[in-house]
Amino acid sequence: MSEDYTYLTPTMIRDYLFCPRIFYYKYVMKIQEPITEMMKDGKIKYEKFREKGKYQITLLGQKKVKPDRILYSQEVYSQKYNLYGIIDIIYWIRGKGYIVDIKDSDTRQIIRDHLYQAVAYSIMAEETFKTSIHEVQLYYIRSGKWITRRVTSNLRKFINRVLGNINRILYDNYIPTIKSSKKCSSCWYRKICSSSISKENREKRKVRRKILKL
Ligand code: SF4
Questions:
Q1: Are residues 105 and 22 in the same domain?
Q2: Does the global pTM surpass 0.70?
């Protein structure tokens, strides 16, 4: 069993969705991937961009959107889901709430894990600000692409299920199975996965040999 986490975060959701096994390594085994220069550089660029955006009249100076009220870097919390995070931007137009999540990426397509992360932010924002979030918007800095999605009940249910699975891993000794995929080739944790697979195979072979001797 892992230590008690005071709260869960949207980053945990993103990690789980990328690969449940990565989540297990990071948050139960506490094995952290070293921070690379590229990661540091991306973070600095993103901070600069967010800071600059605060001084624009339109939303980040990129869209012809003039919010009635706009807030940056807001702490949000959901007691219901035990979630905590800091949203990049929340704004309102004619009473409708919108969340903007800024990503340092050159993609022009929506990345599924980013969408779910943004939905988690909107769930927290609704509880914190007693408001309703109409849409989430992902802004990919390097491609300049905006992607907008409605926060549907199916998306909310999905997040609920993900949080249930995350809690199982953290508190019910559930170890997700290793599922090889395209992602594995660039994954920092692949050495650990390969040695676990070899160990499991060795165990299986041992059991098979024992059965054959009976
Ligand atoms: S190597 Fe593959 S299965 Fe293992 S943690 Fe990475 S992505 Fe997940």
A1: yes
A2: yes
Residues composing the chain: 214
Cβ-contact 132, 166 below 8 angstroms? no
Structural domain range at position 210 = 181-214
Residue 130 lies in a domain: yes
Q: Let me know if residue 1 belongs to a domain.
A: no
Any ligand 1 atom below 6 A from CB of 111: no
- 206 in contact with ligand 1, CB cutoff 6 A: no
Pairwise CA distance, residues 157 & 108, whole Å: 26
Question: Tokens 């948050």 sit at which residue?
Answer: 27
20/71 Cα distance (integer angstroms): 33
Same domain, 48 and 143: yes
104 and 53 in a common domain: yes
pLDDT 10s per residue in the chain (214 long)?
A: 456 678 999 999 999 999 999 999 999 999 998 877 777 676 676 677 666 666 555 566 666 788 899 998 899 999 999 999 999 999 999 999 999 998 888 899 999 999 999 999 999 999 999 999 999 999 998 898 999 999 999 999 999 999 999 999 999 989 999 998 999 998 999 999 987 776 667 777 777 777 777 6
Q: Establish if 118 belongs to a structural domain.
A: yes
> Best mutation site among 14, 17, 18, 22 for ligand 1, i.e. most ligand atoms within 8 A of its Cβ?
22
CA of 143 to the centre of ligand 1 (A): 28
24 and 72 part of one domain? yes
CA distances from 211 to 197, 200, 202 (A): 21, 17, 14
| CATH assignment at residue 137 | 3.90.320.10
- Please give the number of the atom of ligand 1 that sits closest to the Cα of 178: 3
